[in-house]
## 1
Amino acid sequence: MSINKIISFNISSDFGMFKKPDVNTPAYFTFNIIPKTQILGILGAVIGLGGYNQMKESDAYPEFYKELQDLPIGVVPYGNKGVFQKRIIKYNNTVGYANKDGGTLNIIEQTLIEPKYKIYIGLDLSKESHKKINEFIDEKMVQYEYIPYMGKNEFRLDIDEVKHFEDVKLFNPNDEFAIASIFPNIGNEALKRSEALRDPFDSSMSESYFYYFERLPIGLDELNQYRYENLAYTNAKMLKDTEFIKKVNLFLIDEKVICLY
């Protein structure tokens, strides 16, 4: 991984919906934390790369994924300990292809309420697509080729609080530390084998430790289907010398340890 610059920014919207593909009923459910594939789609829209609707029959992947699939990203959810409020929305789909029998299809859709995330992206400025992201997501003004949205095109999102970080280096811990972003819980073993034991007499963190786990898409396979990873979000402290720490890419940004994956 070659990274010579990191950009952070917030994305937010009144509503969001990152559809889970494993439900084949009129009821649709959403991921809680925005998947990496969605973030790549947002960045592709910002700089004008084509999406699924622009794919040709010969294309293995949409243009945004071909160009940005190796882009390392980090995510910090602003929800309550990583969790956002959700609502079930019911509506009718009356288009002909959805109702072959002439009736009305009733859709039940789970929707995120006011989702907001801080996104970190690691740029290799020798790549043209990364240069364009660097230009379009500027600290003074964010430009868009296409309007980005929070999972559905009726949920337009805002990008703000942009920061650029130069001379970035990998974080090498010399003591116990917490990871401020979500991180791969490799084989569900990262926390089991890497979390520091808590001092039972230390009351400073006893009531505020939290753990959130979610299996999220991190890319596409050769069939254009999601590849998944178990990810974790916690303020628990990690040991400095473990095999897990050697397998992840950690950076110290604004005095916070961020994992890019």
## 2
Amino acid sequence: MKHIYFPAIVLFSLLWTSSLYAQQLDTYDTIGDNLLFRKEITGSAIIHTNGWGLEFRKGTNRSIFTKLMWEANLLEMKDAKEIKSINQFFTNTKSYFYGKLNAVYILRAGIGRQHMLNRKPYSGGVEVRLFYSGGLAAGFTKPVYLNILKPDQAAYRYIIVTERYNPDEHFPDNIYGRAGFFKGFDQLSVYPGAYAKVGLNIDFGTINQRPKTFEVGAVLDGFPKAIPTMAFRSPHNLFFTLYLSFGIGKRYD
């Protein structure tokens, strides 16, 4: 749990700070180039407490202070108990995660709203928006394949074969390392679900038409059918993550 403390502190600090900004709202246009564009698209890179991801978002202004947005995310979702291992009894081995059954990826598609908490002054600064969103999620599992050492009795040596990880047969002394990244993509399993997200979006760009955003938030992904990740842990129905993201975009009519 220690690795989620820093994003949590940042999230709650910004929420508290934004409440102070909200008290300064007025009805005057203080955007630097004095133009209010109705549409916005943004692409972002995400780092979250269980991995990384990418996001595409499109928004439409409903008023000066409110924006309707559509979003799509693709993320890697690691298990908190993953520990990198290596077979030290052989040379040229590759690292792997002992006990990992599946690599998990989540695809999200949803809709939400942004509410402006403060407007960027003429002198520069930041614009802070509270946002919330939700929608459909799909979890994808790719089975883990490993290179396994097998004794060749005839030649009195070991041979290396690629097999799907089996906790009853594969152990630290006979695992040579991970197999290729693309091994197992032909055996994907799909887990339908849903997600909910909340946080703060901060625009620090100096050009209104070219927003640069920093975002901090929390997401809960839920799946009716539990997703297996580790051999020695129960499958997960819920994935709670905190995240930070950086995005660049375009505003237009």
